[in-house]
Design a protein that fits this description.
This protein is mostly helical and about 120 residues long. The protein is about 60% helix and about 0% strand. It has five helices and no strands.
């Protein structure tokens, strides 16, 4: 048996449970937003600013999810967003960007900071 406490004695118990259910759906949505949309801080605190920020983040997520579907990528949407974020100014095509060969090539081309050949010596 569940007990719901309220200070509104005008509405019935089933209506109160429906309100709690809707509020829980909102909590689930915001948990999904925090986990998937990578919103760290809001651009503003007005209702309009929060709405715009959420719509931009959701639209971006959906575009990348659609791209993932179109190119049949094995990467997660999160991984694809990370790759796009670091290669935003790259002239590499989308198809090349998400091939395994291209990513491995980029990793091999990076400077190895722990190699003795790459250490700078001060004279």
């Amino acid at each position: 048996m569940l007990v719901f406490i309220t200070n509104n004695f005008e509405i019935e118990a089933l209506e109160i449970t429906a309100i709690y259910k809707h509020r829980w759906q909102i909590e689930i949505f915001f948990r999904w937003v925090k986990q998937n949309l990578q919103i760290k801080t809001l651009w503003g605190h007005s209702i309009n600013a929060v709405k715009i920020h959420l719509w931009v983040a959701i639209s971006t997520y959906l575009i990348v999810a659609y791209l993932k579907h179109q190119i049949r990528s094995s990467y997660s949407v999160y991984e694809m967003m990370q790759i796009l974020g670091i290669s935003v100014f790259s002239k590499t095509s989308i198809n090349e960007l998400f091939t395994e060969q291209q990513i491995n090539q980029n990793v091999k081309e990076q400077l190895n900071l722990f190699s003795n050949n790459n250490l700078l010596t001060h004279q």
